[in-house]
Amino acid sequence: MEAYIVDWLNLLARWVHFITGIAWIGSSFYFIWLDDHLEAPKEATDEEKGVGGELWSVHGGGFYHSQKYHVAPRILPETLHWFKWEAYTTWITGMFLLILVYWYGAGVFLIDPSVADLSVPLAVGIAALFLVGGWVIYDLLCKSPLGKNDNAFSAVLMVLITLLAYGLCQLFSGRGAYIHFGAVLGTIMAANVFFVIIPGQRRMVDAAALGQLPNPEDGIKAKQRSVHNTYFTLPVLFVMTSNHYALTFAHEYNWAILVAISLAGALIRVYFVARHKGKASPLPVIIAGLILLLVAAVIVPKSRAAITGTVTLSMIRPVIESRCTTCHSRNPTHIAFPAAPSGVMLDTDEDIDSEALRIHQQTVVLKAMPIGNLTRISDEERALIDAWYLSRVQQE
Ligand code: HEC
Fold it and tell me: What's the CA-to-centroid distance between 305 and ligand 1, angstroms?
């Protein structure tokens, strides 16, 4: 029953998480687009009112006219829409999911004894420290003199992000490391909104309400943080879907793959931001494409037959029974899985035979199963499954 409730909480939190995530990222993409498409106002009266740029658009059968003020309108409107709950609810539901799946389920999803044999409290403690530490270090850097030099700051950030990916991958299971990498960046993004962007906006609105000129420093700081958020977006979205791709997180050099794909994501975003402003060089996208191609070429799986001679199904059945069917069965005995994960059941010879491709893929090629190597499969047993699969292919 408990696992069933956990499944439902997972489903609901995930659903809300991506709805609010779409709203957050969608509106932030929209405002960047808007900013970069503004034209000088046509009406002289608008200029006098302090309008700096305007834009006409048509959407859903209606015409929209947006105007951006140089600083603030002289009289504040009665209703002023803020965009903050999208970010907060995305972070809150994301944390809820992280805690539910990876902390509460640390034994299955976060800890991999073949990476680091951590106890549950230690693993969760380290994970929490990364989330808090990531923000503290990033925020201090932004406020330091380095924060004023964009190029130097980007270089330092890249080094820190590489260390983050490397460090996490030395501590946690591949999928646990990847999701925490995304959670550290996602936490920085939400904290940027909560601690810097919104308070700055609030001070600007307060000043405008008093008829004073807002402090431009607030605007500059908010801009810097929202630019960072823009570049974090694509890497974070990759990480959020990465647990479907064992070919990335289960690889020996998973940390390098993570850094490379994140870099490609940031470069693609660089191109889109530049394109909004007018003609942009396609170079960043070309480099991003080459990085992705290179990663794909380097991690292409190789099949090695370490064992020669024909291996029959009856020879691998004991391996499946001891390493897989605690979870992958019509009646799983593992407490975390009341039903076979992904619907994969390996109780009978027919089951095993019909799942041969996926068994080989998950156990030998990707080494993603047994998950977190909870049932401690040995390299010899993986080699045996490999040889069985090859014998089978040769017979066909
Ligand atoms: C402790 C529980 C557990 C054990 C033991 C385990 N698995 Fe899994 N397996 C899972 C979970 C959880 C998933 C779903 C993973 C996901 O959502 O990405 C899964 C998914 C799979 C899938 C489907 C993957 C896909 O995306 O198509 C296959 C195939 C699989 N396991 C095979 C195996 C084999 C073979 C073994 C034994 C060598 C094994 N598993 C051992 C928990 C387990």
Answer: 23
